[in-house]
Model the fold of this input.
Amino acid sequence: MKDILIIEDDPEIIRILELHLEDLSYKISKAVDGAQGLKMALANDYDLVILDLTLPTLDGVEICKKLRAEKNTPIIMLTAKSEEIDRVLGLEIGADDYITKPFSIRELLARIKAVLRRTAQNEQQENNSSAITAEGLFIDIDKRKVVLADKKIDLSPKEFELLVLMASNPGRNYTRTELLNMIWGYNFEGYEHTVNSHINRLRAKIESDMTNPNYILTTWGVGYKFNEDIAV
Done:
């Protein structure tokens, strides 16, 4: 049974979500303010967090940042705002999906199922290959740990997923759209710059020379690939 945490201060939205999610046999936990929700999210291993952007005591952006620093729990953000900058912000701080109010419950349920399905697929892929090494870089997939030259490298969940995907397929060229779809899902067409910013942050952590990268290479006119010449 999937365990879902709802962090939302609107009692009507909570009631509707509880009604439909329990019909799908999901176990539901709930918090009505940000501080309580963050405490619950950190203390328990939920399969998904549905997180409102505007909350009492602590807003959704801060919760997402703090949760991402500690855990890989999938997050769907809810907001009454519809500006593009808010959607981009949600993706940049690590949300897995984003939906604006008022929303169709059918659409939200579809998003929930898609995020849970994508998470299960990623876990299955990671379990099929436990470690990757390449010229001083060691990726322990089971433990979600990256070591470079005997030094542990801290990556965000999306940075780690990008690295594992490309390092698992050295030499394969990925377009920005492909990476966006494979890591974030199909709901974010047009946000390819999110891929660029994550690649840049990933390179800053693992490359000794950003102007001449050794691991994540740019394929001009296409996108990115992992250097096949150093793969073991």
